Amino acid sequence: MEYTVLVYKDEDGGFWGEVPVLPGCFSQGETVEETMENMKEAIEVHITALKEDLQEIQINKEFVIGNVSVTAIA
Question: What is the CATH number of the domain that holds 15?
């Protein structure tokens, strides 16, 4: 099973990631690669917890990521 992971650069250094379809599932790392590896473990732990709690496990959904330019509002 594959999940989309969004990775962000942390202001204090390193990176952090989240899984949009699994609220509360996130992790961090010093590099993007380390963050992705940590995310794999976080997803597995998150899904295990959902199963134990008899919660529905969401599957990855298709979506588009884009940028929108707006004028700053004073």
Answer: 3.30.160.250
Max Cα-Cα span within the chain: 49
Buried-exposed string 18-35: b where 16+ CB fall within 10 A, e elsewhere: bbeebeebbbbbeeeeeb
Q: Which segments of the chain have a pLDDT < 50?
A: none
Which domain range does residue 27 map to? Answer: 1-74
Structural domains of the chain, count: 1
Q: How far apart are CA 62 and CA 22, in angstroms?
A: 14
How far, in Å, CA of 43 to CA of 71, rounded?
37
8 Å CB contact between 1 and 61:
no
pTM of the model: 0.81
